[in-house]
Every structure is written in C-alpha cells, then in structure tokens.
Amino acid sequence: MHFIDERTLLIENFPRLHVAILMDGNGRWAASRGLPRSEGHRAGVEAVRRVVKAAPELAVGTLTLFAFSGDNWQRPANEVIALLDLVESYLLGEAANCAAGGVRIRVIGRRDRIPPSLKAAIEAAEAVTSQGRGLELRIAVDYSSRDAILRAACWMLSSLEVSQAEFARRLGEVTHAGRSSADVDLLIRTGGEHRLSDFLLWECAYAELVFVSKMWPEFEAGDLEAAIGEFGLRERRFGRVPAVVAGD
Questions:
Q1: Which of the 8 DSSP states describes residue 58?
Q2: pLDDT digit string (tens) for 1-39?
Q3: Coil, strand or helix: which one is 123?
C-alpha cells in the first residue's frame, strides 16, 4: 500500500478479518460543496469500489457495508429512491467484475419492502458471484439489527437447541447472511459520529471500534489500512485478563 510502519507489518500476521463499515457523511460531504445529497451518495459508491479493491490485500475476508438502514425509510422519498437506485446500479454494474475478481456478494437485510427490480438485482448478483472465495462482500440493505434480533428470537421458539451458535444460525437465516451471522472483528464508522446506529449489534459484541472524521466519499484505501493497523495494535481479551497479568 502507500506506507509501511509498525501497523502495516502487523497486518501480515492477521487471520482473515471481518470488517464492517458504517459509511457515514455522504450528505454532509455534498452539502459542504453546495451539491444535492444524492451526489454525495454517488461519490460514496466510488469509495465503495476503492475499499472493495483494497480489502483482500489487507487480510479482510468479509467486508460488510451499511448501505440502507431500516430507519432510512423515514428520509424524503426522493432520497430513498436515489439510494435504492444506486444500490441496484452498483449490483448490476459490478457483479461481473466481482465474480472475475473472486468477490462473493451477499445482501443482508429484509427483502419484503424493497422494489422488485432491486430484489431481482440482488438475486442475480448473488448467483453470479456465488463461487467467489477471495472476499465476501456483504451489503446491508433495509437492515435493522434490532429487527433481525427480534425475528431471530421468535424463530428460536421452534429450536431444540438454545445456544449462541444456534441463535447466530437463526440470525443468519433471517438476514440472508448465510449459515450464520459472523462476528465482526473491526467496525469502522466515518463522518465523525460515535455510535453503532442499529448496525450488527449481536455481531459486534467484541468488535474493535474505529471512528474516522473523514466523510465516506473521502475514504481511501490508505484509511482502511490505517484502521486495520490500529486494530492490530489493540489487545483483544474477550473477557480474559491481559496476557502480561496472566503470565505473572
């Protein structure tokens, strides 16, 4: 990448990571330039392309991007339409490139409220990229973690097994995430805000959080590398005592 330091060297020793990104700041980026909010979202798509291209080289095995939340339906109708159209255009335009590059696309979230054309684009993109093994790209559309947890909990009433693994499996089924809903290693939020905003609450139980002041359209591959490098310098204990104390 663009620079080599202690953080970058640590990346080489990582297992494949699950990185999730709250792509915040598109509207503010556009407003600061006197542009419509929709132009900010369009610029954000270019940032998505940069990050997807860089991720496999930075030990990322799964990349989950928050594109449209369940609460975003409350935005003005023209912005909602523009956002969903951008997701559809991205899937239609990038599916073949992703397949050629070994990227598997999954779209997580509800599918009963989105336009039929978007649902068809999702199904087509998932089918054509199903053999990708280099990176799993998960795009969250009409996604609400609270809603998903509630529906998965209701499904648990029919389960013979009560365990975290079984709940993760149910959650994966509810959100179309696959066999289970994978734990997040690193959560990045751009735009300077410091909250999770109903994104992957179950999966982020032990995630490391990195908040970036840059607006999403400004986010570069080097920023992803820096966040992963910071992740590599943190000690993940999962409730255990620090390694130095344990050795005393």
A1: G
A2: 444 455 554 555 567 999 999 999 999 999 999 999 999
A3: helix
pLDDT digits (tens, 9 = 90+) for 70-82: 999 999 999 999 9
Alpha carbon of 8 to those of 34, 45, 134, 221, 232: distances in Å? 37, 26, 20, 13, 9
Enumerate domains of the chain plus CATH numbers. 6-232 (3.40.1180.10)
CB-count exposure of residue 78 (10 Å: 0-12, 13-18, 19+) = exposed
Chain centroid offset of residue 62 CA: 8
Active site residues: 24, 72
Q: 82 CB contacts (<8 Å, ≥6 apart)?
A: 37, 38, 41
> How much is the pLDDT for 243?
63
Q: Using CA atoms, how far apart are residues 30 and 17, in angstroms rounded to an integer?
A: 31
Tokens coding 74: 């409350």
Length of the chain (residues): 248
In tens, the pLDDT along 92-105 reads 999 999 999 999 99
CA–CA gap between residue 226 and residue 233 (Å, rounded): 11
Distance of alpha carbon 218 from alpha carbon 65, whole angstroms: 16
Task: Render pLDDT for 141-173 as a digit per residue (tens, 0 to 9).
Answer: 999 999 999 999 998 888 788 899 999 999 999
pTM: predicted TM-score of the whole model, two decimal places: 0.91
The CA-atom distances, in angstroms, between 232 and each of 7, 15, 134, 219 are 6, 11, 21, 20
Instruction: Report the DSSP pairing between strands 60-69 and 17-22.
Output: parallel
4 vs 182, more confident: 182
